[in-house]
């Protein structure tokens, strides 16, 4: 991704604020309900049982800390990279379950269980993947712009 928009500080600041807001809100909703988030992680059927509770405690804090770092302009490149890796992992986890035909709630912004049909959950998983791919594009813009800043 290169060109005038990828290095525009006006655009980059807004992209970083969007990423910060998304991850702070997503992380906070999981921090307030670790058991609920652990249950959602278990539903993915991808993580060994022994690691679920640790992940439920650590993952939301990574999201919040990286989001706040982006918001305040601290370690922007590192925070953006970490969030990018998380997004790739989220897309893969959702994609695996979608391919399995295993409908789950993504638990991205809430750990509450909502009554939905399997078809609705599968549709929501596709939307979550699309959203995360869009967020990955924002990550790419931010990293591209920070690379250009380093060269100047």
What does this structure look like?
By secondary structure, this protein is mainly alpha-helical. The protein has one domain (4-145). It is 80% helix and 0% strand. The chain has six helices and no strands. Helix 2 (9-31) packs antiparallel against helix 4 (49-72). The chain is globular. The protein starts with a helix and ends with a helix.
What's the SSE blueprint?
Layout: H1 4-7, H2 9-31, H3 34-44, H4 49-72, H5 76-100, H6 118-151
Record field, number of beta strands:
0
Largest sheet: none
Give the SSE string.
HHHHHH
Strand content: under 5%
Low-confidence stretches: none
Task: Explain briefly what this protein structure is.
The chain is an all-alpha fold and 152 residues long. Helices cover 80% and strands 0% of the residues. It has one domain (4-145).
Defining key terms:
mainly alpha, 80% helix, 152 residues
């Amino acid at each position: 991704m290169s060109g005038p928009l990828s290095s525009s500080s006006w655009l980059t600041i807004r992209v970083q604020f969007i990423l910060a807001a998304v991850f702070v809100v997503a992380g906070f909703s999981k921090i307030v309900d670790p058991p609920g988030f652990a249950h959602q992680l278990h539903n993915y059927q991808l993580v060994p049982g022994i690691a679920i509770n640790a992940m439920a405690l650590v993952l939301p804090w990574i999201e919040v800390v990286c989001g706040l770092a982006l918001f305040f302009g601290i370690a922007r490149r590192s925070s953006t990279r970490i969030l990018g890796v998380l997004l790739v992992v989220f897309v893969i986890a959702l994609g695996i379950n979608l391919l399995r035909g295993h409908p789950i709630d993504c638990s991205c912004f809430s750990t509450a269980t909502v009554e939905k049909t399997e078809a609705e959950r599968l549709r929501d998983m596709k939307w979550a993947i699309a959203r995360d791919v869009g967020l990955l594009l924002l990550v790419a813009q931010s990293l591209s712009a920070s690379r250009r800043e380093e060269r100047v």
